[in-house]
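S.,

Sequence below, as promised.
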Amino acid sequence: MTDMDINYLDWNDALDVLGRAYKIGLFALIIGPKGTGKTTLVRKFASLLKKKLYSVNFSLRTRESHLIGTKTLDKGDISFVEGILVKSMRDDSLLYLDELNAAEPDVLLRLDEALDDRRQLVLKEAEGQIVNAVDNWFVVATINPLSHVGTKELPPQLLSRFPVRLKLFYPPEEVEFDIVKRHIALDNSKISDIKRAIRLANSLREAAAVEELYYSPSLRETIAFAKLLNTGVSARYGAEIVYANAYDQWGEVEYQKVIDMITSIFGD
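The prediction came back faster than expected:
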């Protein structure tokens, strides 16, 4: 995939900041809620650099072996299969650590070893073999706000490994509309409805930011709403499907708040 194939509208000059970090050899951390384009930004940057992209999406189920590797037995022979972290250190690549603050402490500990100034990892799993990262090895991590389920504070020493910190917010309404246009062909008759949906999404995000609602809709949902409109679904019904129904899991009161917001924007 070339950089031209990746739709990323760089409304806050994030690519420029990442480029500067890469040139001076400083790892970067991207902070922001889900759906603000963090992953697309990293994919776009890797393609611009023409670097292979290794990625890990962290969760409670991510183990050291995913990063480091594991021993295998094949026809009586024991061999060591390298994990993503080790592979990326050996290649001229970009390592993407997605949702890093969802990782378990033992996993973070091994990462910290590789990310310090030595860029070195001792493989106790492979007879103490030492892996030294190639000169142009570059690491970008993303974290979600602590309000997101499963997230926790990064240890200070690991946070210090990422001295370049970018904060991504949801884009301004006019930029979000441009992003939608990059993903779907818009009928002129649907433009006003899509702009109403963007206004609704921003109202929901603002309410979630002050904990009046549990959920903050992403850019993906705006794009999904636009695609639904193209199938002939009414704007009001599309807003219920894409936005309101997600809130029902938190109860009738939460759901009704969103329905009332939809009514105020789209009518009955």
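The first helix runs from residue 14 to 23.

Coffee later?
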